[in-house]
Task: structure prediction
Amino acid sequence: MFDERVILCVSNAYNKKYYLNEDFEQLPQQIKDELKILSVLYTEDVGGILTIGFEESGDLFLEVEANENDLLFDEIGSGLKIKQMQTDKQELWESLEMFFRVFYLGEE
Result:
């Protein structure tokens, strides 16, 4: 069992970088591509740093951070875009949660 959150991927608008946790390299390429597109488009549109990962329970989370002095970060737009992503990509999120629970938490 994990003692803390597990990061799936991170997109950072400040240094223009995307990171996929190497523990998830076995995900299908289509899913890895979709995660990258979603994450990078999000940070290009809203700014900040988007982290997608899993709680100890296996639940997926989407978390956004912004630098204090980032005047261009759109906090309201960020919240709306996260809600839209959760709704539009619900099947993707559920699939990722199932993958994590089976392959990492050993649930059946």
